[in-house]
Amino acid sequence: MIVLVLVGVVLLVAGGCACVVWAERGGPRWARGVAAVTLAAGELVRRSGRSNRGSGSGSDD
Hints:
This protein is mainly α.
């Protein structure tokens, strides 16, 4: 079951990346919308990774 969920996530990520490329080349309006959502989700993941990385380093003095 977990394999199916992971395959689904990988397919969604690949589809989002394809829409980003297609939108850059002047794709349809729906592809631009999917690309905007994909880029926003990527930015959220990147910001959450930064905050988690720095949270445990303050107590090692």
